[in-house]
Amino acid sequence: MKGSCSALSELLEKYFDQEVTDEERSLVDTHLVDCHACRDLLKSMEKMRDLVKAPVEEAVGEENFQWVWQKIERGIREEERPAFWETLQRWLQIPPLSKRRVWIPAAAMVMILFITLPLFFKKNPSYQSASVVEYVESATNNVMVYESENSKVTVIWLFEEPEMETPSS
Amino acid sequence: MNPDEIQLISRCQKGDQEALKEIFDQYHQKVYRVAYGVVREREEALDIVQEVFIKLYRSIRNFKGKSKFYTYLYRMAMNTAIDHSRKMKKSPFLSLDGMEGFQPAEREERDPDHTFLRREQQERIRGALEKLPIDQKKALIFREVEGLSYQEMAESMGCSIGTVMSRLHYARKRIRELLGSYEE
Fold it and tell me: What is the DSSP letter of B105?
C-alpha cells in the first residue's frame, strides 16, 4: 500500500459506506484511478458484505411471518395470565408480603393468636363428676355411695363421726 | 418520530395489541434480518423475532421517546440475538422442543442441496462472527446486514460515531482474515 493509501484508508471505508462529503468523495475517486491496491480492497469489502448480507436477504424473502404473529399473541396471553397468588392478592387487595408494614404486623398477630387462643379454649380441670347412687343413714354410721362418671369408680363414703369423715372404697 | 408513530407507540403502551400488530407489520423484517444476521439459523431467528416482540410489549412503557423508536427496537433485537447466540454456543445441537407450529421455508422443501450448501456457508460465517468481540459483531451486522448509517448505529449502540467507525474497521479486517480462505 502506498503512503497515500494509508492516509486514505479510513476515508476509503467511509467512501465504501457512502458516509463521505462531496469533497472527500472527490479525493477518493481521484486516488482510486491510480491505486490498484485500494481498488482491490474495495472489491474485497464488497465481496465480504455480500457474503454476510446475501443469505440474510434470501432468508427474509422465503419467510412467512403470519404464524410468528400468532405465536407472539399466544406468548402474550400466557404471560398475562396471573399466578394464583397474584389473583388472590388482587382480590383481597393485600400489598405484597415482601413489604415490612405487612409481614411484621401479620407475624405479630399470628404470635398473639398462638398464645391467646389456647386460653379461650382451655378446659377447666374437671372434677370427676359423680352422682350419688345411694345415701344410707344408720344408727352407727351413715353411708353414702356414689359413682364417678368418668372413671367408673364406686366410692362408699362412710361417715363415722362428723369430724372424722374418711372415704373408703 | 412522526405523529402517527407517536400515536401508535402510545396505544401500544396502553396495552393495545392491535397497535403491537401494526408495529410488528412494520418492523418484523428488520428484526428478523438482525436476528438472522447474528445466529444464521432460521428457527433461532424466528424464535428471536417472537421473543423481541413479546419483550417489546412488556417493556414499551419504559420507552420515553428520547431516542428514535427503531433504534430502541434494533438495540433490543441485537441484544436478544446475541443472548441466543451465546446459548447456541453452549448447546450446539438444535432441540426440537417447542417447535410446534414450525413451518419449513418453501425453498428448503424444494431444493435440499441448496439448503445444505447454504447451511454450510452460514456455519462458516457464524463461526467467523463468533470470533469477533460483541461490539464489533454488532457494528458489522448493523452496517452490512441492515445498512444503518453511522449516526443510526451510534444511537443503537449507545456510543459515538468515532467509536462506531473504529469497531467497524476492526470487524471488517478480522472478518476478511477469517473468511479469506473461504473466498479462495
Answer: -
d(CA A51, CA B9): 36
A92-116 per-position pLDDT tens digit: 665 666 667 778 888 889 898 888 8
**A→B interface, C-beta within 8 Å:** 10, 13-14, 17, 19, 44-45, 47-49, 51-53, 55-60, 62-65, 67-73, 75-76, 79
Residue B148 C-alpha cell reads as: 444503518
| Opening angle at CA B146, ends B103 and B18, nearest 5 | 55
Contact B123, B77 (CB under 8 A): no
d(CA B36, CA B54): 18
Task: Of A106, A104, A81, give the one whose Cα is nearest residue A92.
Answer: A106
Angle at B149 between CA A66 and CA B171, to 5 degrees: 95
Question: Could you report the per-residue pLDDT of A9-52, keeping only the tens digit for each?
Answer: 779 999 999 999 999 999 999 999 999 999 999 999 998 999 89
Domains: count for chain A: 3
Q: Does B7 touch chain A (CB under 8 A)?
A: no
Map grid coordinates 402517527 to a residue: B4
C-alpha cell at B45: 431467528
Q: With contacts defined as CB-CB under 8 Å, which chain A residues touch B149?
A: 19
C-alpha cell at A43: 472489491
Q: Provide the domain limits for residue A11.
A: 3-62
Report yes or no on A117 lying in a domain: yes
Is the distance from CB of A22 to CB of A15 less than 8 angstroms?
A: no
Distances (CA, A) of B169 to A71, A128, B148: 39, 100, 15
Evaluate if pTM is beyond 0.80: no
Q: Is residue A71 part of a domain?
A: no
Structural domain contains residue A67: no
Cβ-Cβ contacts under 8 Å, A41 against chain B: none
